[in-house]
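Lab meeting, item 3. Inverse folding demo.
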């Protein structure tokens, strides 16, 4: 049973790290969106503006993909943790039953 709680604790710290990463990536997206606004209002010609905006939008897309990947990893780790905890609980019940039968 203690092994299960240790596993849960380490996974929670990973999840917290993943949440932190997602927040950082979201902040980067906000900064890029702000840059797009700046480019839109700049005095550059339309072609230059369009090129800059396309680059910024490509960076935003990459960051959004990274966020989705991290959230997907987090979800699969949560599913794995649940599965591990169930197996651990089942093993505890089985070992308790063996002790009760032998006693």
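The presenter then showed the designed sequence:
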């Amino acid at each position: 049973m203690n092994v299960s709680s240790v596993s849960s604790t380490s996974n929670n710290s990973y999840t917290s790290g993943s949440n932190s990463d997602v927040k950082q990536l979201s902040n980067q997206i906000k900064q890029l969106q702000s840059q797009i606004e700046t480019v839109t209002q700049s005095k550059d010609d339309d072609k230059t503006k369009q090129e800059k905006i396309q680059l910024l939008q490509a960076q935003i897309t990459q960051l959004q993909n990274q966020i989705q990947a991290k959230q997907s990893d987090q979800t699969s780790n949560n599913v794995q943790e649940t599965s591990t905890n169930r197996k651990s609980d089942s093993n505890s019940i089985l070992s308790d039953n063996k002790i009760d039968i032998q006693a």
